[in-house]
Amino acid sequence: MAAKRLGQLPLKRIMVRGVNWIGDAVMTTPALATLRSHYPDAEIVMVANPLVAELFAAHPSVDRVMVFDKKRRHQGTSGFWQMASELRKQRFDAAVLLQNAIEAALLSVLALIPRRAGYTTDGRRLLLNHPISVSDADKRLHHTDYYLQLLSRLGIEGGDRKLKLACTSEELDWAKEVLAEENVIAINPGAAYGSAKRWLPERFAAVGDELAKSYDARIVLTGGPGEVEIGNDIAATMACNPLNMVGKTSVRQMMALLASSRLLVTNDSGPMHVASAFDIPIVAVFGSTDHTTTCPASEKVVIVRKETDCAPCLLRQCPIDHRCMTAIQADDVLQAAYQLLDDQP
What we know:
Elements: E1 13-17, H1 22-27, H2 29-38, E2 43-48, H3 50-55, E3 64-67, H4 76-88, E4 94-97, H5 102-110, E5 115-119, E6 130-132, H6 136-139, H7 143-153, H8 169-179, E7 184-188, H9 201-215, E8 218-221, H10 228-237, E9 243-244, H11 251-259, E10 263-267, H12 270-277, E11 282-285, H13 291-294, E12 301-304, H14 323-326, H15 330-342
Parallel strand pairs: 1-2, 1-4, 2-3, 4-5, 5-6, 7-8, 7-10, 8-9, 10-11, 11-12
Helix pairs in contact: 2-7, 8-11, 9-10, 9-15
Protein backbone atom coordinates (compact mmCIF):
# COMPACT_ATOMS: atom_id res chain seq x y z
CA MET A 1 0.00 0.00 0.00
CA ALA A 2 1.33 3.43 -0.94
CA ALA A 3 2.44 5.70 1.89
CA LYS A 4 0.03 8.47 2.79
CA ARG A 5 0.83 11.99 1.68
CA LEU A 6 1.31 14.54 4.44
CA GLY A 7 -2.05 16.16 3.73
CA GLN A 8 -3.85 12.88 4.47
CA LEU A 9 -2.54 12.76 8.04
CA PRO A 10 -4.45 14.22 11.05
CA LEU A 11 -1.87 16.80 12.14
CA LYS A 12 -2.46 18.89 15.26
CA ARG A 13 0.79 20.85 15.64
CA ILE A 14 2.78 21.94 12.59
CA MET A 15 6.12 23.70 12.48
CA VAL A 16 6.76 25.82 9.36
CA ARG A 17 10.36 26.77 8.68
CA GLY A 18 10.08 30.15 7.00
CA VAL A 19 12.36 31.57 4.33
CA ASN A 20 15.00 34.16 5.19
CA TRP A 21 14.17 37.21 3.02
CA ILE A 22 11.17 39.47 3.59
CA GLY A 23 10.09 39.51 -0.05
CA ASP A 24 10.31 35.75 -0.34
CA ALA A 25 8.45 35.40 2.96
CA VAL A 26 5.55 37.49 1.64
CA MET A 27 5.39 35.22 -1.41
CA THR A 28 4.88 32.22 0.91
CA THR A 29 1.68 33.68 2.39
CA PRO A 30 -0.65 31.92 -0.11
CA ALA A 31 1.00 28.63 0.86
CA LEU A 32 0.45 29.45 4.52
CA ALA A 33 -3.21 30.24 3.85
CA THR A 34 -3.52 26.90 2.08
CA LEU A 35 -1.99 25.10 5.04
CA ARG A 36 -4.38 26.91 7.40
CA SER A 37 -7.39 26.09 5.20
CA HIS A 38 -6.44 22.39 5.06
CA TYR A 39 -5.76 22.21 8.81
CA PRO A 40 -8.13 24.79 10.36
CA ASP A 41 -7.84 23.37 13.89
CA ALA A 42 -4.10 22.72 13.95
CA GLU A 43 -1.60 24.95 15.70
CA ILE A 44 0.71 26.40 13.05
CA VAL A 45 4.01 27.77 14.36
CA MET A 46 6.35 29.82 12.16
CA VAL A 47 10.09 29.46 12.79
CA ALA A 48 11.96 32.37 11.22
CA ASN A 49 14.79 34.85 11.60
CA PRO A 50 14.04 38.05 13.56
CA LEU A 51 13.01 40.20 10.57
CA VAL A 52 10.73 37.60 9.00
CA ALA A 53 9.33 36.75 12.43
CA GLU A 54 8.15 40.38 12.73
CA LEU A 55 6.38 40.05 9.39
CA PHE A 56 4.27 37.16 10.73
CA ALA A 57 3.67 38.53 14.24
CA ALA A 58 -0.02 39.21 13.50
CA HIS A 59 -0.80 36.92 10.58
CA PRO A 60 -4.12 35.07 10.31
CA SER A 61 -2.46 31.85 9.09
CA VAL A 62 0.04 31.64 11.95
CA ASP A 63 -0.76 30.95 15.61
CA ARG A 64 2.70 31.61 17.03
CA VAL A 65 6.16 32.67 15.91
CA MET A 66 9.42 31.23 17.22
CA VAL A 67 12.52 33.32 16.49
CA PHE A 68 15.62 31.54 15.18
CA ASP A 69 18.32 34.17 15.74
CA LYS A 70 21.60 32.82 14.36
CA LYS A 71 23.43 36.11 14.99
CA ARG A 72 22.75 36.19 18.72
CA ARG A 73 20.94 33.62 20.85
CA HIS A 74 21.27 30.74 18.40
CA GLN A 75 24.73 31.55 17.07
CA GLY A 76 27.12 28.77 16.15
CA THR A 77 26.88 25.04 16.81
CA SER A 78 25.77 25.43 20.43
CA GLY A 79 23.05 27.88 19.40
CA PHE A 80 21.83 25.50 16.70
CA TRP A 81 21.53 22.69 19.28
CA GLN A 82 19.69 25.07 21.60
CA MET A 83 17.15 25.88 18.86
CA ALA A 84 16.67 22.17 18.20
CA SER A 85 16.07 21.64 21.93
CA GLU A 86 13.49 24.44 22.02
CA LEU A 87 11.66 22.88 19.07
CA ARG A 88 11.83 19.39 20.58
CA LYS A 89 9.88 20.61 23.62
CA GLN A 90 7.03 21.69 21.32
CA ARG A 91 6.33 18.09 20.22
CA PHE A 92 5.41 18.98 16.65
CA ASP A 93 3.61 16.38 14.53
CA ALA A 94 5.15 17.66 11.29
CA ALA A 95 7.55 20.16 9.79
CA VAL A 96 6.79 21.91 6.50
CA LEU A 97 10.07 23.32 5.22
CA LEU A 98 9.55 26.34 2.99
CA GLN A 99 13.23 27.17 3.35
CA ASN A 100 15.28 25.20 0.81
CA ALA A 101 18.48 24.73 2.88
CA ILE A 102 19.73 21.47 4.34
CA GLU A 103 19.93 23.27 7.69
CA ALA A 104 16.12 23.36 7.91
CA ALA A 105 15.88 19.61 7.44
CA LEU A 106 18.69 18.90 9.91
CA LEU A 107 17.05 21.13 12.50
CA SER A 108 13.79 19.19 12.10
CA VAL A 109 15.59 15.87 12.54
CA LEU A 110 17.36 17.04 15.69
CA ALA A 111 14.05 18.39 17.00
CA LEU A 112 12.65 14.84 16.65
CA ILE A 113 9.79 15.98 14.41
CA PRO A 114 8.42 12.71 12.97
CA ARG A 115 7.07 14.06 9.66
CA ARG A 116 9.42 16.28 7.62
CA ALA A 117 8.26 17.65 4.27
CA GLY A 118 9.98 19.87 1.74
CA TYR A 119 11.69 20.13 -1.62
CA THR A 120 14.72 17.88 -2.11
CA THR A 121 17.06 20.85 -2.52
CA ASP A 122 20.55 21.25 -1.06
CA GLY A 123 21.16 17.50 -0.80
CA ARG A 124 18.62 16.92 1.96
CA ARG A 125 16.48 14.13 0.46
CA LEU A 126 17.55 11.54 3.05
CA LEU A 127 16.55 13.86 5.90
CA LEU A 128 12.96 14.13 4.63
CA ASN A 129 10.29 11.45 4.86
CA HIS A 130 7.91 13.46 2.67
CA PRO A 131 10.39 14.54 -0.03
CA ILE A 132 9.23 16.50 -3.07
CA SER A 133 11.55 16.48 -6.08
CA VAL A 134 12.22 19.80 -7.77
CA SER A 135 12.90 20.15 -11.49
CA ASP A 136 14.44 22.96 -13.53
CA ALA A 137 10.90 23.89 -14.62
CA ASP A 138 9.84 24.15 -10.98
CA LYS A 139 12.68 26.60 -10.34
CA ARG A 140 11.38 28.83 -13.14
CA LEU A 141 7.95 29.16 -11.51
CA HIS A 142 6.93 32.40 -9.89
CA HIS A 143 7.96 32.06 -6.25
CA THR A 144 4.32 32.18 -5.10
CA ASP A 145 3.50 29.18 -7.29
CA TYR A 146 6.70 27.39 -6.26
CA TYR A 147 5.57 27.28 -2.62
CA LEU A 148 1.94 26.51 -3.47
CA GLN A 149 3.09 23.63 -5.65
CA LEU A 150 5.04 22.15 -2.74
CA LEU A 151 1.87 21.95 -0.66
CA SER A 152 -0.19 20.64 -3.55
CA ARG A 153 2.24 17.76 -4.06
CA LEU A 154 1.98 17.01 -0.36
CA GLY A 155 -1.79 16.68 -0.75
CA ILE A 156 -2.49 20.00 0.98
CA GLU A 157 -5.08 22.02 -0.92
CA GLY A 158 -7.63 24.74 -0.34
CA GLY A 159 -6.05 28.19 -0.62
CA ASP A 160 -5.65 30.77 -3.37
CA ARG A 161 -2.76 32.77 -4.87
CA LYS A 162 -3.52 36.02 -3.06
CA LEU A 163 -0.75 37.51 -0.92
CA LYS A 164 -1.83 38.56 2.55
CA LEU A 165 -0.32 40.45 5.48
CA ALA A 166 -2.03 42.11 8.42
CA CYS A 167 -1.40 45.20 10.54
CA THR A 168 -2.98 45.87 13.90
CA SER A 169 -5.23 48.89 14.39
CA GLU A 170 -2.56 50.39 16.68
CA GLU A 171 0.05 50.10 13.94
CA LEU A 172 -2.22 51.76 11.39
CA ASP A 173 -3.01 54.55 13.88
CA TRP A 174 0.74 55.09 14.34
CA ALA A 175 1.23 55.38 10.57
CA LYS A 176 -1.66 57.83 10.26
CA GLU A 177 -0.12 60.03 12.94
CA VAL A 178 3.37 59.91 11.40
CA LEU A 179 2.20 60.57 7.85
CA ALA A 180 -0.16 63.34 8.98
CA GLU A 181 -2.23 63.12 5.78
CA GLU A 182 -3.91 60.51 3.59
CA ASN A 183 -2.56 61.39 0.13
CA VAL A 184 0.79 59.61 0.43
CA ILE A 185 3.11 58.15 -2.20
CA ALA A 186 5.91 55.90 -0.98
CA ILE A 187 9.33 55.51 -2.58
CA ASN A 188 11.57 52.57 -1.71
CA PRO A 189 15.00 53.22 -3.28
CA GLY A 190 16.94 50.34 -1.72
CA ALA A 191 17.13 46.59 -2.19
CA ALA A 192 18.73 44.36 0.43
CA TYR A 193 20.11 41.76 -1.99
CA GLY A 194 22.65 44.11 -3.57
CA SER A 195 23.38 47.26 -5.56
CA ALA A 196 22.64 45.60 -8.93
CA LYS A 197 18.92 45.78 -8.10
CA ARG A 198 18.96 49.51 -7.35
CA TRP A 199 17.82 52.20 -9.75
CA LEU A 200 19.64 55.55 -9.67
CA PRO A 201 18.89 57.64 -6.53
CA GLU A 202 18.73 60.95 -8.43
CA ARG A 203 16.05 59.52 -10.71
CA PHE A 204 14.00 58.37 -7.72
CA ALA A 205 14.30 61.94 -6.43
CA ALA A 206 13.11 63.40 -9.74
CA VAL A 207 10.14 61.03 -9.83
CA GLY A 208 9.20 61.88 -6.25
CA ASP A 209 9.27 65.62 -6.85
CA GLU A 210 7.17 65.34 -9.99
CA LEU A 211 4.55 63.12 -8.33
CA ALA A 212 4.37 65.38 -5.28
CA LYS A 213 3.69 68.37 -7.55
CA SER A 214 1.30 66.64 -9.94
CA TYR A 215 -0.86 64.97 -7.27
CA ASP A 216 -0.35 67.30 -4.31
CA ALA A 217 0.95 64.27 -2.46
CA ARG A 218 3.27 63.74 0.45
CA ILE A 219 6.30 61.59 -0.38
CA VAL A 220 7.56 59.11 2.20
CA LEU A 221 10.89 57.30 1.75
CA THR A 222 11.12 53.77 3.14
CA GLY A 223 13.96 51.31 3.56
CA GLY A 224 16.13 49.37 5.96
CA PRO A 225 19.11 50.30 8.15
CA GLY A 226 21.60 49.49 5.39
CA GLU A 227 19.99 52.03 3.06
CA VAL A 228 20.17 55.14 5.26
CA GLU A 229 22.80 56.84 3.11
CA ILE A 230 20.70 56.35 -0.03
CA GLY A 231 17.65 57.78 1.74
CA ASN A 232 19.59 60.79 3.01
CA ASP A 233 21.01 61.50 -0.45
CA ILE A 234 17.57 61.35 -2.07
CA ALA A 235 15.93 63.50 0.63
CA ALA A 236 18.67 66.14 0.29
CA THR A 237 18.18 66.24 -3.48
CA MET A 238 14.40 66.57 -3.49
CA ALA A 239 12.61 69.91 -3.52
CA CYS A 240 9.36 68.69 -1.95
CA ASN A 241 10.78 67.90 1.54
CA PRO A 242 9.89 64.19 1.76
CA LEU A 243 9.33 62.32 5.01
CA ASN A 244 12.50 60.25 5.24
CA MET A 245 11.80 57.05 7.21
CA VAL A 246 14.68 55.01 5.78
CA GLY A 247 16.29 53.06 8.61
CA LYS A 248 13.90 54.55 11.17
CA THR A 249 11.19 51.89 11.32
CA SER A 250 10.71 48.33 12.44
CA VAL A 251 9.43 45.82 9.90
CA ARG A 252 5.92 46.21 11.24
CA GLN A 253 6.08 50.01 11.12
CA MET A 254 7.27 49.80 7.52
CA MET A 255 4.29 47.54 6.79
CA ALA A 256 1.91 50.11 8.28
CA LEU A 257 3.42 52.98 6.27
CA LEU A 258 3.08 51.06 3.01
CA ALA A 259 -0.44 49.88 3.86
CA SER A 260 -1.37 53.57 4.30
CA SER A 261 0.09 54.72 0.97
CA ARG A 262 -1.62 55.43 -2.33
CA LEU A 263 1.24 54.15 -4.50
CA LEU A 264 4.71 52.63 -4.11
CA VAL A 265 7.60 53.30 -6.49
CA THR A 266 10.30 50.74 -5.81
CA ASN A 267 13.11 48.48 -6.88
CA ASP A 268 12.62 44.70 -6.75
CA SER A 269 12.66 44.43 -2.95
CA GLY A 270 10.96 43.14 0.17
CA PRO A 271 8.81 46.27 0.60
CA MET A 272 7.58 45.78 -2.99
CA HIS A 273 6.01 42.47 -1.97
CA VAL A 274 4.74 43.91 1.32
CA ALA A 275 2.85 46.61 -0.59
CA SER A 276 1.47 43.97 -2.94
CA ALA A 277 0.09 42.03 0.03
CA PHE A 278 -1.84 45.15 1.05
CA ASP A 279 -3.15 45.62 -2.53
CA ILE A 280 -1.25 48.90 -2.97
CA PRO A 281 -0.54 49.89 -6.61
CA ILE A 282 3.16 49.47 -7.44
CA VAL A 283 5.62 50.76 -10.00
CA ALA A 284 8.42 48.20 -9.87
CA VAL A 285 11.79 48.88 -11.49
CA PHE A 286 13.52 45.65 -12.58
CA GLY A 287 17.01 45.17 -13.94
CA SER A 288 19.29 42.38 -12.75
CA THR A 289 16.53 40.15 -11.39
CA ASP A 290 13.97 38.03 -13.21
CA HIS A 291 10.55 39.66 -13.18
CA THR A 292 8.90 36.41 -14.29
CA THR A 293 9.71 34.73 -10.96
CA THR A 294 9.75 37.61 -8.46
CA CYS A 295 7.38 40.32 -9.73
CA PRO A 296 4.57 41.33 -7.34
CA ALA A 297 1.70 38.82 -7.45
CA SER A 298 -0.81 41.60 -8.07
CA GLU A 299 -2.91 43.08 -10.84
CA LYS A 300 -2.06 46.59 -9.63
CA VAL A 301 1.54 46.65 -10.80
CA VAL A 302 3.45 48.08 -13.73
CA ILE A 303 6.90 46.57 -14.33
CA VAL A 304 9.45 49.03 -15.74
CA ARG A 305 12.45 47.36 -17.37
CA LYS A 306 14.60 47.61 -20.47
CA GLU A 307 15.79 44.75 -22.63
CA THR A 308 19.57 44.44 -22.43
CA ASP A 309 21.97 41.71 -23.52
CA CYS A 310 22.95 40.81 -19.94
CA ALA A 311 19.75 41.01 -17.88
CA PRO A 312 18.56 39.26 -15.88
CA CYS A 313 22.01 38.31 -14.56
CA LEU A 314 20.88 37.66 -10.95
CA LEU A 315 24.12 39.14 -9.62
CA ARG A 316 24.39 41.17 -6.42
CA GLN A 317 26.70 43.74 -8.02
CA CYS A 318 27.02 44.74 -11.66
CA PRO A 319 30.46 43.85 -13.06
CA ILE A 320 30.16 46.27 -15.99
CA ASP A 321 28.16 49.48 -16.47
CA HIS A 322 24.73 48.82 -14.82
CA ARG A 323 23.12 49.32 -18.22
CA CYS A 324 19.87 47.55 -17.25
CA MET A 325 19.19 50.36 -14.77
CA THR A 326 20.80 53.38 -16.45
CA ALA A 327 18.63 52.71 -19.51
CA ILE A 328 15.50 53.39 -17.44
CA GLN A 329 14.71 57.10 -17.42
CA ALA A 330 12.66 59.05 -14.89
CA ASP A 331 9.96 59.57 -17.50
CA ASP A 332 9.58 55.79 -17.95
CA VAL A 333 8.75 55.44 -14.27
CA LEU A 334 6.54 58.53 -14.23
CA GLN A 335 4.43 57.23 -17.11
CA ALA A 336 3.85 54.00 -15.19
CA ALA A 337 2.92 55.96 -12.05
CA TYR A 338 0.48 58.16 -13.98
CA GLN A 339 -1.18 55.05 -15.39
CA LEU A 340 -1.78 53.60 -11.91
CA LEU A 341 -2.72 56.86 -10.18
CA ASP A 342 -5.08 58.02 -12.91
CA ASP A 343 -6.91 54.68 -12.75
CA GLN A 344 -7.75 55.27 -9.07
CA PRO A 345 -11.24 56.54 -8.22
